Structures are given as C-alpha cells and as structure tokens.
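Q&A log
Question type: sequence-to-structure
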Amino acid sequence: TITYTLATEDIRTPHVVLPTIPLEARPKKSVLLPSYPNPGNPETWIPFRLSQEADVTIEIYNVAGQRVRTLTLGRKAAGNYIRRQRAAHWDGTNDTGEAVTSGIYFYTIRAGALEETRRMVILK
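Response status: OK
Response body:
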C-alpha cells in the first residue's frame, strides 16, 4: 500500500506529481536461487536475480553431466526474477519433449558475468 498526503498547494494545482517509488529494487549482485518446489513435481521454477541487463540461458544437466534441456530466456533487464510468474520454468522434459526420469539434476545459469550451478531433485 502506498500512501500520499495531499498538501494545500497540491489542491491548487491541476495535477499532482507523486514521488518515484521503486517497486523492485535493483539487486546488488546477480545470483541463482534454489528451484521450487524442490524436491517436488516433475516441473519446477528456477528463480534468479540480475544486477545488470543480460542475455539469460539456463541449462539442465543429469548426474552424468549430459545436457538434457536448454532454456533460452533472452535479454532480461536487471531485477528480481523470483516469483513464479517471472522465474524460469522447466516442465521436466528434455530438448526433444520427452519427460525426464526422477533423480538429481543440475541447472546452470549464464547471464553476463554470472555463471552459477545448483542442484535439484525431480520426483514423479
């Protein structure tokens, strides 16, 4: 909720200029966050934060180190991609559309200078 109190001089002018309020502060550091639900469904959301605008790619690997899926997210502005609506979504399939088996997977983000890997568990 945002509250603004009108002053007497505001009432005398034809319009009111509200102060700029940042809805999502720019992160100081780019980071890859834990996927959710994890462990969980055969699909998962992968949240991250970007301190600078960057082209974002997330690659999913199995325990043997084989790439099973690439998520190309394109150019993303600096910001928080942590809510389900903004985080990367993986539907639990490989690059050919086949469902992956339950197990441990690794996901790597590449975004500008950021390259980070985390582990997740997929259960069906």
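Response note: Residues 22 and 115 are 27 Å apart (CA to CA).
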